[in-house]
Amino acid sequence: MHQKEDSSCFYVRVPARVLGCLRGGEITIILFPGHGLVLTEPIQTYFIPENLRMPNSEFDVLFKHPGREMIRVLRHDEFCPEIDASNE
Predict the structure, then answer these.
(1) What is the DSSP letter of 72?
(2) DSSP 8
(3) Is the pLDDT of residue 26 over 50?
(4) What pLDDT digit, counting tens, does each position of 38-75 carry?
(5) Taking Cα atoms as reference points, which of 49, 71, 36, 1 lies closest to residue 18?
(6) What confidence tens digit (pLDDT) does each residue in 4-22 have?
(7) Which DSSP state fits 79?
(8) Which residue, 13, 19, 33, 75, has most beta carbons within 10 Å?
(9) Torsion sign over Cα 30, 32, 34, 37
(10) Cβ neighbours of 9 (radius 10 Å)
């Protein structure tokens, strides 16, 4: 998990895996898979790229805090300017 702090907010990149429950335009994902936690989160289908919607697909979710606002889905190796720009 990476984060970038600024005066009013910061971003967190959280690993996720598709659980596979598709209902009413939502896909349920598991946050922090493999860490002994079972944190599930329903996400609107349009938020996840088509090639990552299959069960067990893994990616990262970018959250903005405070407020736990979901910003976007990122592939594990995808550049994230909100976090990675400060690491270069």
Answers:
(1) E
(2) S
(3) yes
(4) 788 888 888 999 999 999 999 999 999 888 888 999 99
(5) 49
(6) 544 578 899 999 999 887 6
(7) -
(8) 13
(9) negative
(10) 13
Structure-block tokens of residue 30: 């598991």
CA atoms within 13 A on the CB side of 58: 7
Residue 53 in tokens? 């919607």
Most distant CA atoms of the chain, gap in Å? 41
pLDDT at 5: 46
Residue 60 burial by Cβ neighbours in a 10 Å radius (0-12, 13-18, 19+): buried
What's the pTM? 0.77
Question: Bridge partners of 27?
Answer: 22, 43
